[in-house]
C-alpha cells in the first residue's frame, strides 16, 4: 500500500543501455567524431538480452551502447581536442574566406594535435594485452604501407606504416620468432603499389584505425627492441653499415631516405645497445613446479628442442634470389630461419654477394628455364621455402625444381580434428615428419580410405537392418499371388533358414552385439526430453555435416586421381 | 613596426620627384568628374585637368613610340603622367623582391633606440629569454617504453568486462594459391557459387590454382577484407554466448537395458491373412485362443491364434468399425459395431458349455412390466441369422464408432461421435436389455470411452482431454488435459491408476491419475499419427501403433509404492505392416496371457509379434 507508482522503463536493463544518437548528444559530438572516439577508445555496441525492454517497448532496430561506456567517454581528454580541432577548422575556413594568408599560416602552425599514448596505455594495461591485438594492427599497417601516394590518405601515414612494418620484420628476424608462413600475410607485403582503390570503402574509418594501430605498433616495437637489447629506432650494425655505404654512396643521394630502404632490405643485422656475444644461448630456466611430473617436463623439453631446431632450419645455407621472385617476403622468411640471402644489385640495395658466388647453395627461381646454370647449387621454386618452413624440416628439393609441376601448397593454419578431412599431401608430410619413407604410405592411405568406406557401409546397414524381413514379406506376397491365381495353395514345408548371425561364429556375434547396442541407443534416444533432443539433434547434424563434407572431398580427390591415372595410361599407349 | 618604418621611408623617397600635390584627400576622383579641375594644390589653387584625355589610340601610340613608357606612371589624383627616375625604379625593384627600400639598411642590426617602445620591449623579452623561437614541429611520433611500470591497479573492471573481438579466421587449404585439387570447385559448383548472393556464399572467394608463384595476382580483396574487419570491430554489437560443450552421448538418458526387461514381443511370428480391406479393429478372447477382427470389407473374421487359421467369416451389413470380445470367460459374446448397429454375436467357439450358457443367458431375458422409452431398440435374432451366430441387434439412432465392454461383461458402452447433441455415449446392460444415456450435456466430440477395470469409473476422451466420471455418484471426478491436439485412442492400466492416450499429433501421453491431471510423461517416439494403444493385462507392457507402420512396445512398470514413479522404457520397435493410403497400423491389442501383441493394419493383415 502507498508509495510511488512504479513507472515503466525507469529501472533495469532499460537504464543500462543508451542508443547511439542519445550517446552522441550526451557527448556533444558529431557522428564522425563519435565514430572516431569509439574506434580509438575501443567502445563497441552491445546487444541487450531483451531488446524490446531496452528500446522502451519499440521494436525499431537501434544500436545500443552501454551507458557505462558512454559515461566513461565523458572524461576522455581527447574529446576536448576534437572540439579544439573543430574550432580550428572553423577559424581556418574563415581566414580562407577573408583571404588572410598570414592568418592561415599562423593557424596552420598552431594546428591542434593529439596523442594517443594514454589511450593505448588505458586500453592495453599490460604488454600481453597489447600483443593480443597486434594481428589486426599488423595487417592494417602492411596494407597501408602498400598504398599508392595518390592522396587517398596522408603520405606521412603511409611512410610511418612502412617504417613500422619494416621495423617489425627486422625484429622478427632478429628474434627468429617466425613459426608459420601464411600466404595471406605475405600477399599484403608482396605486391605493393598496384591497388585499384575500391570506391565503396570509407577510408576515414580505416585511417582512424590506422592512427590507433600505428601508435600501438610503435610502442610494441619499442618494447620488443628493448627486450632484445636492440637500438630503437633500429640502426644497422656498424660493420654492415660501412659495407653498404661503400658500395652505394653514389646511388643514393640522401642518407635519411636511403636508411629506410637499407633497413627494408632486411639483409643486415641490427645494432645492439650492449655488444653481446651473438650466439647467446638463452636457456630457459627450468623450475619444475610441484604438480608437474617428469613426463610433462620431458615433453616440454622436447618441444623446446624442436623449436630450437626449427629456428635454425636454414642455418648454413646461402640463398640467391632471382629478380622475378618476391624479394621482400622471401628475404624475410629466409633470414628468419638463419639463412644468408642476397639478390641482384640492380634489384634493391643491400645485396651482399653476386650470382657468381660459388658458395651459394640454393638459387630461388620462378621462370620456366634458366640459360646459365651452376652445377653446385639447387635451382628451386619459391614454394619450397614456404613449404619447408611450414613442415619444419628441409623437404626434398626434387619436387620443386625449375619447370616441375608443383605439389599443392597447404595452409599451415589448419589443424585437423578427428573426423575432418585431411588431404593426402598432409598425411604424407606427417609421415615424413615422423621419419617414415615416402614410398610406403601411399598404400597406407589407400587402406585408410578403404576403412572409411567400410564404416560408411556399416552405418548404412544399421539404418535398414530388417532387410531379411522384407525379403520374407516378398516371398509371402509371391505365395499369395500364386494362390490368387491358382486358387490351390501348394502347401509345402521348406527347411527353415538359419540366420547367419545365429550360427555363432565370432564375426557374427560381434555384429549382433553391435546391432543390439545400436538399437538400445535408438530406443534411449526416443526417451529424451524435448530440449535435450533438440540439442542432441543439432550436435549430430553438425557432426554429420562435417562427415559429409569430408566424404565429398575424398570423393572429389578420388575422381581427380582416377582421371589423372587414366590420362597417364592414355599417354603411355 | 620595422615594416611600417620602411613604408614611411618609401613615402619620403616618393616625395622627391613630385611638386604638384592634391589636397582633396583620399576620396573617389569621380566626384570631380563634372568639373574642369581635379582638386587643389598646397597653395589652395585649382589643379586643372589636361585639356584632352588620352584615348586608347593615344595610349597605343605612346606605348609604341615612347621609350620611357615602361617607367611612366599615371597619377590619378593629379591626372598627370609621371616618369620614374632611376632611383625610383630601383626602389620598386627592391620592393618587388621583398627587400628593404633603403639599400643601405642592415636588416640584421637591431635598432634599439630608434624603433619605438614595442620593439624595445620585444627585444628585451628575447634577451631575457621570455620569448623563444618557435620550435620546429615534430613530424614523427615519439615512442618510449609505455609498459615500463605495469601497474596492477590499471586493470580496471572495464578490462575484465571487455569482450574481445573474435579473431579473423586464418586461411585454410582452399585459400592457398596452389590448393590440393579437391578444394577446387567443379563447374557446377562454380555456377552455383556465382548465382548465390554474396552474403550466402560459404566461401567469399573462388579457390584458384596457379602453376607458379609469379602467376599469382595481387590479393584483390585485401582492402575490402580489412575494411570489413574495421567495420566489424567498431559497429558489431558484441555479446557473450555460452557455447554448449557437451558430449552428445551424455545427453542420452541412462535406461535399463531392454534385455533385462524381458519378456516382450520381439519378432513377427504369424500373419493372419484373409481380409481384403483395412482391418479397423481386433480383439482377443479372454482365454487367448481366439481372435476376432473387423474390417472395411464388411466382414468379421474369427481366427485361431496359434495356427493363424480363419475359423469363421461373418458378413455384416457394413464396414466394421469396432469389435470387442466379452472379457468375462464364462460368457462367449462378441460385440461388433457397423454403421448404426451394434451386434452381439455368439461365435460358438471353444467350450460347448460356455456357448450354451451364453445362449441361455440371452434367452432367459424376461421383459419388464412397464416398457420404458429407450434410445436404442433391442432385437433378438432368429432363423438363419441365429444360425450364423447373431444374437442381439441394437439399432442406434446414429453411426457407432466404438464399442467397449465393462470388465464384468454385463455392461457395454457404444460411442456415436456427434458434436451437436448430448447423445454420444450410451451404456447398455445385456442381461436386462436396458440402455441409458449417462450425460445430459455435450462436452465436445467424444473420441473413445473406457470402463475402469475395478471401480465404477467411466473414462471419456474428447478431442483434447479425458474426463473421468464416477458412475455411482454420477459426477465428474477428474479432467485430464492431454497437451495434444487430437486424441485418437486411450487405454487404462489394469491397476486402474494409470492411463495412456495416443494422439494424431504423434504423441503418447502417460497419465498417473494419483499424481496430476497433466501427463506424467509425453513420448514422441512415433513419426506419424498414433491410431491405437494397449496395455497388457499382466505384464508391465504397453504398445502403440501408428501410421508410420510401426508398433512400439514399451516397458511400463507401475509400482505399488506411491512414492515411486512409473518406469517407462521403450524396448522394441516392431515393423512389418506396409503403409497403404498413408495408413499403417490401425489397432493393437495384447494377448491376455502371453507377452504377445497383435496388430492390424491398413494392408489388410493382422500380425502377431511374439
* Largest interface (C-beta under 8 Å): A-B, 104 and 87 residues
Give the averaged pLDDT of chain B, no decimals. Answer: 84
Please compute the radius of gyration of chain B using only Cα atoms.
57 Å
β-strand amount of chain B? 25-35%
Secondary-structure-derived class of chain B: alpha+beta
Task: Note poorly predicted spans of chain B.
Answer: 1-18
Overall description:
The complex is a heterodimer of chains A (about 575) and B (about 600). With about 575 residues, chain A is mainly alpha-helical. Chain A has 23 helices and six strands. Chain A has helices at about 15, 20-25, 30-40, 50-55, 65-75, 75-95, 100-110, 115-125, 125-130, 135-145, 155-175, 185-190, 205-225, 240-250, 255-265, 295-310, 325-335, 385-390, 425-435, 440-465, 465-485, 505-525, 530-570, and strands spanning about 15-20, 65, 320, 340-345, 360-365, 380. Chain A has a four-stranded parallel beta sheet with strand order 4-3-5-6, with helices on one face. Chain A has a two-stranded antiparallel ribbon with strand order 1-2. Chain B is of the alpha+beta class and about 600 residues long. In chain B, the strands form nine sheets. A five-stranded antiparallel beta sheet of chain B has the order 10-11-12-14-13.
Amino acid at each position: 500500500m502507498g508509495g510511488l507508482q512504479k513507472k515503466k522503463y525507469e529501472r533495469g536493463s532499460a537504464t543500462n543501455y543508451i542508443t547511439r544518437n542519445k550517446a552522441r548528444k550526451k557527448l556533444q559530438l558529431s557522428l564522425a567524431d563519435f565514430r572516431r572516439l569509439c574506434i580509438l577508445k575501443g567502445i563497441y555496441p552491445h546487444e541487450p538480452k531483451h531488446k524490446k525492454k531496452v528500446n522502451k517497448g519499440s521494436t525499431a532496430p537501434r544500436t545500443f551502447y552501454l551507458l557505462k561506456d558512454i559515461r566513461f567517454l565523458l572524461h576522455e581528454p581527447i574529446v576536448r581536442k576534437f572540439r579544439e580541432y573543430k574550432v580550428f577548422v572553423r577559424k581556418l575556413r574563415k581566414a580562407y574566406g577573408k583571404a588572410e594568408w598570414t592568418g592561415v599560416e599562423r593557424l596552420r602552425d598552431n594546428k591542434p594535435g593529439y596523442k594517443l599514448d594514454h589511450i593505448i596505455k588505458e586500453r592495453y594495461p599490460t604488454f600481453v594485452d597489447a600483443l593480443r591485438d597486434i594481428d589486426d594492427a599488423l595487417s592494417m599497417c602492411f596494407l597501408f604501407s602498400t598504398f599508392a601516394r595518390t592522396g587517398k590518405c596522408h603520405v606521412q601515414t603511409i611512410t610511418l606504416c612502412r617504417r613500422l612494418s619494416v621495423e617489425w620484420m627486422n625484429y622478427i628476424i632478429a628474434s627468429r620468432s617466425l613459426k608459420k608462413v601464411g600466404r595471406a600475410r605475405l600477399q599484403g607485403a608482396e605486391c605493393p603499389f598496384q591497388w585499384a582503390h575500391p570506391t565503396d570503402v570509407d577510408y576515414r574509418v580505416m585511417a582512424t584505425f590506422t592512427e590507433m594501430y600505428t601508435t600501438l605498433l610503435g610502442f610494441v616495437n619499442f618494447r620488443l627492441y628493448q627486450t632484445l637489447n636492440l637500438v630503437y629506432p633500429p640502426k644497422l650494425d656498424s660493420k654492415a653499415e660501412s659495407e653498404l655505404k661503400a658500395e652505394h654512396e653514389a646511388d643514393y643521394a640522401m642518407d635519411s631516405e636511403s636508411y629506410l630502404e637499407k633497413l627494408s632490405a632486411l639483409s643486415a643485422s641490427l645494432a645492439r645497445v650492449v655488444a653481446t656475444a651473438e650466439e647467446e644461448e638463452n636457456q630457459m630456466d627450468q623450475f619444475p613446479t610441484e604438480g608437474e611430473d617428469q613426463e610433462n617436463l620431458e615433453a616440454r623439453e622436447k618441444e623446446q628442442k624442436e623449436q630450437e631446431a626449427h629456428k635454425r632450419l636454414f642455418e648454413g645455407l646461402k640463398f640467391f634470389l632471382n629478380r622475378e621472385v618476391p624479394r621482400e617476403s622471401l628475404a624475410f622468411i629466409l633470414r628468419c630461419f638463419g639463412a644468408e640471402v642476397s639478390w641482384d644489385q640492380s634489384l634493391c640495395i643491400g645485396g651482399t654477394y653476386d650470382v657468381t658466388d660459388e658458395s651459394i647453395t640454393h638459387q630461388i627461381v620462378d621462370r620456366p628455364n634458366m640459360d646459365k646454370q651452376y652445377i653446385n647449387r639447387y635451382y628451386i621454386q619459391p614454394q619450397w621455402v614456404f613449404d619447408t618452413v611450414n613442415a619444419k624440416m628441409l623437404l626434398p628439393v626434387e619436387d620443386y625444381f625449375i619447370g616441375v609441376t608443383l605439389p599443392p601448397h597447404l595452409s599451415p593454419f589448419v589443424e585437423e580434428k578427428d573426423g575432418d578431412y585431411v588431404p593426402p599431401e598432409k598425411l604424407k608430410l606427417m609421415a615424413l615428419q615422423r621419419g617414415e619413407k615416402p614410398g610406403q604410405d601411399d598404400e597406407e592411405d589407400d587402406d585408410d580410405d578403404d576403412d572409411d568406406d567400410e564404416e560408411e557401409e556399416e552405418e548404412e546397414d544399421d539404418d535398414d537392418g530388417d532387410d531379411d524381413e522384407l525379403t520374407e514379406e516378398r516371398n509371402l506376397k509371391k505365395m499369395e499371388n500364386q494362390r490368387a491365381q491358382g486358387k490351390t495353395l501348394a502347401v509345402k514345408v521348406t527347411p527353415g533358414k538359419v540366420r547367419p548371425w545365429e550360427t555363432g561364429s565370432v564375426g557374427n556375434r560381434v555384429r549382433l552385439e553391435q546391432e543390439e547396442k545400436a538399437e538400445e541407443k535408438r530406443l534411449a534416444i526416443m526417451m529424451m526430453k524435448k530440449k535435450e533432443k533438440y540439442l542432441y539433434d543439432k550436435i549430430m547434424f553438425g557432426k554429420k555435416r562435417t562427415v559429409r563434407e569430408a566424404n565429398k572431398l575424398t570423393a572429389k580427390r578420388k575422381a581427380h586421381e582416377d582421371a589423372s591415372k587414366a590420362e597417364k595410361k592414355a599417354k603411355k599407349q | 613596426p620595422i615594416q611600417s618604418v620602411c613604408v614611411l621611408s618609401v613615402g619620403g623617397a616618393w616625395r622627391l620627384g613630385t611638386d604638384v600635390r592634391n589636397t582633396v584627400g583620399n576620396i573617389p576622383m569621380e566626384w570631380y568628374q563634372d568639373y574642369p579641375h581635379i582638386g587643389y594644390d598646397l597653395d589652395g589653387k585649382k589643379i586643372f585637368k589636361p585639356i584632352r584625355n588620352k584615348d586608347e589610340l593615344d595610349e597605343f601610340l605612346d606605348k609604341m613610340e615612347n621609350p620611357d613608357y615602361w617607367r611612366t606612371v599615371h597619377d590619378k589624383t593629379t591626372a598627370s603622367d609621371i616618369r620614374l627616375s632611376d632611383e625610383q625604379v630601383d626602389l620598386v625593384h627592391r620592393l618587388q623582391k621583398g627587400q628593404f627600400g633603403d639599400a643601405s639598411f642592415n636588416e640584421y642590426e637591431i635598432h634599439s633606440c630608434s624603433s619605438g617602445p614595442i620593439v624595445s620591449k620585444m627585444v628585451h623579452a628575447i634577451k631575457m629569454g621570455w620569448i623563444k623561437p618557435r620550435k620546429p614541429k615534430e613530424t614523427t611520433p615519439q615512442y618510449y617504453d609505455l609498459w615500463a611500470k605495469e601497474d596492477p591497479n590499471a586493470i580496471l573492471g572495464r578490462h575484465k568486462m571487455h569482450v574481445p573481438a573474435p579473431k579473423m579466421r586464418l586461411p585454410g587449404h582452399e585459400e592457398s594459391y596452389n590448393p590440393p585439387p579437391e578444394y577446387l570447385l567443379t563447374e557446377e559448383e562454380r555456377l552455383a557459387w556465382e548465382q548465390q548472393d554474396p552474403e550466402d556464399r560459404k566461401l567469399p572467394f573462388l579457390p584458384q590454382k596457379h602453376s607458379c608463384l609469379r602467376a599469382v595476382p595481387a590479393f584483390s580483396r585485401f582492402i575490402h577484407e580489412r575494411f570489413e574487419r574495421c567495420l566489424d570491430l567498431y559497429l558489431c554489437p558484441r555479446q557473450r554466448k555460452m557455447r554448449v560443450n557437451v558430449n552428445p552421448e551424455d545427453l542420452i538418458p541412462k535406461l535399463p537395458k531392454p534385455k533385462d526387461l524381458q519378456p516382450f514381443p520381439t519378432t513377427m511370428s504369424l500373419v493372419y491373412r484373409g481380409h481384403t480391406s483395412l482391418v479397423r479393429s481386433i480383439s482377443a478372447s479372454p482365454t487367448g485362443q481366439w481372435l476376432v477382427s473387423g474390417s472395411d470389407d464388411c466382414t468379421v473374421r474369427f481366427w485361431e491364434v496359434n495356427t493363424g487359421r480363419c475359423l469363421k467369416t461373418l458378413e455384416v451389413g457394413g464396414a466394421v468399425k469396432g469389435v470387442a470380445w466379452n472379457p468375462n470367460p464364462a460368457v462367449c459374446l462378441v460385440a461388433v459395431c457397423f454403421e448404426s448397429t451394434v451386434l452381439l454375436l455368439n461365435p460358438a467357439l471353444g467350450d460347448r458349455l460356455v456357448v450354451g450358457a451364453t445362449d441361455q443367458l440371452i434367452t432367459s431375458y424376461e421383459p419388464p412390466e412397464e416398457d420404458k422409452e429407450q434410445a436404442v431398440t433391442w432385437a433378438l435374432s432368429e432363423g438363419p441369422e441365429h444360425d450364423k451366430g447373431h444374437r442381439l441387434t441394437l439399432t442406434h439412432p446414429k453411426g457407432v464408432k466404438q464399442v467397449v465392454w465393462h470388465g464384468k461383461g454385463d455392461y457395454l458402452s457404444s460411442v456415436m461421435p456427434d458434436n451437436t447433441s448430448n447423445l454420444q455415449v450410451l451404456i447398455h446392460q445385456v442381461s436386462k436389455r436396458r440402455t441409458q444415456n449417462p450425460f445430459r450435456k455435450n462436452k465436445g466430440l467424444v473420441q473413445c470411452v473406457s470402463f475402469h477395470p475395478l471401480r465404477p469409473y467411466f473414462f471419456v476422451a474428447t478431442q483434447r482431454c479425458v474426463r473421468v466420471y464416477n458412475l455411482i455418484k454420477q459426477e465428474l471426478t477428474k479432467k485430464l488435459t492431454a497437451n495434444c491436439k487430437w486424441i485418437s485412442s486411450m487405454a487404462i492400466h489394469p491397476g486402474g491408476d494409470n492411463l495412456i492416450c495416443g494422439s494424431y499429433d504423434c504423441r503418447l501421453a502417460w497419465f498417473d491419475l494419483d499424481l496430476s491431471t497433466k501427463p506424467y510423461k509425453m513420448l514422441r517416439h512415433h513419426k506419424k499419427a498414433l491410431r491405437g494403444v494397449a496395455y497388457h493385462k499382466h505384464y508391465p507392457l504397453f504398445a502403440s501403433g501408428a501410421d508410420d507402420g510401426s508398433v512400439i512396445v514399451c516397458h511400463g512398470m507401475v509400482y505399488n509404492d506411491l512414492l515411486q514413479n512409473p518406469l517407462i522404457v521403450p524396448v522394441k520397435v516392431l515393423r512389418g505392416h506396409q503403409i497403404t493410403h498413408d495408413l499403417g497400423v490401425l489397432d493393437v491389442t495384447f494377448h491376455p496371457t502371453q507377452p504377445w501383441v497383435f496388430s492390424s493394419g491398413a494392408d489388410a493383415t493382422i500380425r502377431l509379434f511374439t
